[in-house]
Amino acid sequence: MRLVLVGGHTETARIDGISAAGATPELMRQTPAADLELLEYGQPVDRPVPVSPSGCPTPAVMSRAARELLGIDLLGVDAGLAAETVTPTVDFGGSVGADVREPEPLPDAEAVVAAGKRVGRALGDERVLIGETIPGGTTTALGVLTALGEPTGVSSSLPENPLGLKRRVVAEGMDASGLVDGDAADDPVRAVETMGDPVLAAVFGLTVGALESGTDVTLAGGTQLATGAALVRHEGVDAPLSLATTSFVAEDDSAAIEELADRLGLELTVTDPGFEHRDHPALNGYVAGEAKEGVGMGGLLARCRERDIEMERFRDRVTAVYDRVTEQRPQP
Prior knowledge:
GO terms for molecular function: nicotinate-nucleotide-dimethylbenzimidazole phosphoribosyltransferase activity. It contains 14 helices and seven strands. The radius of gyration is 18 Å and the shape is globular. It is 44% helix and 13% strand. The two termini are 35 Å apart. It is α/β, with parallel strands linked by helices.
């Protein structure tokens, strides 16, 4: 088994109030590259650890802790990064996604999906986890779900989900692209081209390719990965597909993740890391409703459970990773 972590950027993240996946809009552009490095090397290289404006650390801290416990292999994917990373990646040739309010925010969607299918078919693993890192990705996910005509609940990295703002942004994007709800139900590439981001395009292609080759795929995340599954289903692929997320997403009523998973025929696994049992700066933001998921966290937590790794041991490793990276991090 390995984790495939797909990184990319969308200028949608620059919309005020959309995302907390970085302390500032400028630092958000660094978040996916930093997440890939933290997961690969145990700390970002020459850049700060991504934190929210309130200081809540990136889910990459949690995923790194799980990876240290599991010893799981990592394959990084550059679907359209805004900042270069020193982590070895497979480059899908994608560009940074434009603001979803533009008429065609991802003109190279078809090429990214095709690259994903090729890599997915070539993985050769019996089982893979597919995760993501992209600020602003729940808004583009909402856009894609709307274009596909699917239920339109998504989660948020913010404690209070700005769903009203996201819906207004998506409505502007749909209008700019000349779409109404469900217009792209029979054309998932068009959905991601007109309302999506490079990570969704890559996840879509990877999942289809891996399933076609007989690989068991678990989408490791929340509503963004569920949106990837929606694209797969609208492609006509009905192979068994799993979604593994955190209790933070499952308990977010605005995300409606159980309803979406059921509608898409996904086997849903929810894992509670029990962060409320410890008072630590690595954990407190999650208990307060920040971040919730990302960087494969839900899938890696589920894998820890499968391997009988107790959540107390996981929490110990999370706090150790956090203390290590915050001691060594460069200042922004």
